[in-house]
Amino acid sequence: xxxxxxxxxxxxxxxxxxxxxxxxxxxxxxxxxxxxxxxxxxxxxxxxxxxxxxxxxxxxxxxxxxxxxxxxxxxxxxxxxxxxxxxxxxxxxxxxxxxxxxxxxxxxxxxxxxxxxxxxxxxxxxxxxxxxxxxxxxxxxxxxxxxxxxxxxxxxxxxxxxxxxxxxxxxxxxxxxxxxxxxxxxxxxxxxxxxxxxxxxxxxxxxxxxxxxxxxxxxxxxxxxxxxxxxxxxxxxxxxxxxxxxxxxxxxxxxxxxxxxxxxxxxxxxxxxxxxxxxxxxxxxxxxxxxxxxxxxxxxxxxxxxxxxxxxxxxxxxxxxxxx
Length: 324
Known about the structure:
By secondary structure, the chain is an alpha+beta fold. Helix content is 32%, strand content 19%. It has helices at residues 4-7, 71-79, 84-96, 98-110, 134-142, 219-225, 237-244, 258-261, 263-269, 286-293, 295-304, 310-322, and strands at 13-14, 20-22, 40-45, 49-54, 60-63, 124-125, 153-154, 165-172, 175-183, 191-194, 212-216, 228-229, 249-252, 273-275, 306-307. The chain is elongated.
């Protein structure tokens, strides 16, 4: 579909109440003076739907995925410089999403996501003051992971390979539903997972007042950016249902490899934004970016490059693929 914020010309400001303000372009078309006080506002309702309100001339319009583009919204997009034929194509594309959205909503009403309780393997909580845990703490520090905000478990006294394992519990609604073990001994396999179908890692850590949820492939990507992880390069229908319950704008940030780039089509199909920042060639995923640039710059680059424009996404995918 389209990213409305990228279409509106000029600078934007984020307000504390959730509006994105800008100099409204509707005023001059409604017989008013040009707006220079950021009186136009866009507010998202969930992941893709939005409303626009000009607090100067009173112009209002909105967009709902699954419905045709309304006349006032069509006019607003044309004022933004979009060709009328492109607006019509977007309108038809929106209608094509209706069956998918109806199916997801029906399943959401009929199904309650449930995961079985699981027991964790033997381990002790990671403690940075314990000399036996320095090995694990150093590893997390190197990867710029804040080990104090997640209940990692370790087993330094194990006689097997488990002494090199960093155990990461999976929780859903504060209940243990699985785990993964990341072995840091440079042997294969690196991970051993106990994951139930549909589970989304770090879902419990998403705050109710956050407007955005950043979706990554890997667990350490999610931990380094306060996002969530699919733990693979696809989005299952069950995972989409779990994410929909957050009622937030979803931004998918795939890994910089060919399997990862394919996930963008599925993300757009579900109405998610996709972000492919212009990171350097040696940055292969979100965690690499955090290690290289820092958490805040990485977050900003993800938010600034989030789009639903298929043309922009395909262009970035081609640029990234050339460097692989």
